[in-house]
Amino acid sequence: MSWFFVDDIIDSNCYTITGENARHISKSLRMTPGEPVTLCMPDGYLCLCTITDVEKDKVTVRIEDKQRCTSEPSIDVTLFQCVPKGDKMDLIIQKAAELGVKKLVPTLSARCVSRPDEESADKKVRRFQKISLQAAMQSQRGCIPDVSNYITFERALELAKAYDLSVIFYEVTGQAIRNILSVNTVQPKSICVFIGSEGGFEESEIMKAQDAGIHVATLGKRILRCETAAIAALTLIMYEFEK
User: Fold this and answer.
1) Considering its fold, how many domains does the chain have in total?
2) By residue range, what is the domain housing residue 175?
3) Does residue 139 sit in the same domain as residue 189?
4) Please, what is the average pLDDT of the chain?
5) Distance (Å, rounded) from C-alpha 126 to C-alpha 129?
6) DSSP state of 175
7) 173-207 per-position pLDDT tens digit
């Protein structure tokens, strides 16, 4: 079923979809009256709808039922992804959104080669947010993962203090994620994950992270590409926590 996010809380029996969503329904999907669509509202509820009328920039639907979206994970996960070269970040954003991340933070660590200026960074974040939206629609998320502005590694360490659990993945040493979780008697409600760019983290950064109370974890004996590491780490986190 086609899945769209809307900015409104729908409290009537019909609704008019406009803008890009309407153009996507009418032009790209070529949907017609009688076909079903799902609208996800900001409060996490879904409207199960039937199309009643399709115009060029306007689609009218009838609300058939409302229900709580059950696709969101039981834990809020933020990914501090150190920025890789080229278009690798696009893939990481897409897969992180599909896997259930709530927030993605492009982070500049010591080994990041890609360091866009402010104007370029703003353009990239807007593109990242669109990728996040499309991935959330495809995977039928209950919310659109937020992509923040670029920040420094030091700033990321400060923000990590607000989470119940923080983990940095390091290719040289570290514990298995399951061992880290076993020492916590109370299941955390929020977790943040640090993934390095090409070349990983410098030892001094790992030491800073440990000083900030962040757990050092491993993804095994093999060295993974940064985009693979992000997907593997998030999959492990979701496997351990998702109910």
Assistant:
1) 2
2) 76-241
3) yes
4) 92
5) 5
6) B
7) 877 777 777 666 678 899 999 999 998 999 999 99
Of the ranges 78-82, 194-198, 237-241, which one carries the lowest mean pLDDT score? 237-241
For 154, the enclosing helix (H) or strand (E) is helix 153-160
Q: Are residues 103 and 35 in the same domain?
A: no
- Kindly write down the DSSP assignment for every residue of 21-42, as one continuous string: HHHIIIIIS---TT-EEEEE-T
- Burial class of residue 127 (count of CB atoms within 10 Å of its CB; 0-12, 13-18, 19+): middle
Query: How would residue 158 be classed by pLDDT, with cut points 50, 70 and 90?
Result: very high
Same domain, 49 and 104: no
Q: Can you tell me which residue has the tokens 């926590």?
A: 241
d(CA 138, CA 136): 6
pLDDT digits (tens, 9 = 90+) for 29-51: 999 999 999 999 999 899 999 99
50 and 83 assigned to the same domain: no
Strand-pairing partners, residue 60, are 16, 53
* Sign of the CA dihedral with 93 first, then 143, 79, and 110 last: positive
CA distance 198 to 111: 7
Identify whether the C-beta of residue 214 lies closer than 8 Å to the C-beta of residue 152.
no
For residue 180, give both structure tokens.
Answer: 């880290």
Residue 159 tokens, joined:
């923000």
Q: How far is CA 167 from the centre of its chain?
A: 17
Q: Above 90 in pLDDT, residue 126?
A: yes
How many residues in the chain? 243
Q: Given CA atoms 91, 97, 99, 104 in this order, what sign does their dihedral have? A: positive
Indicate the SS3 state at residue 58. strand
Cα gap 79→193, rounded to integer Å: 5
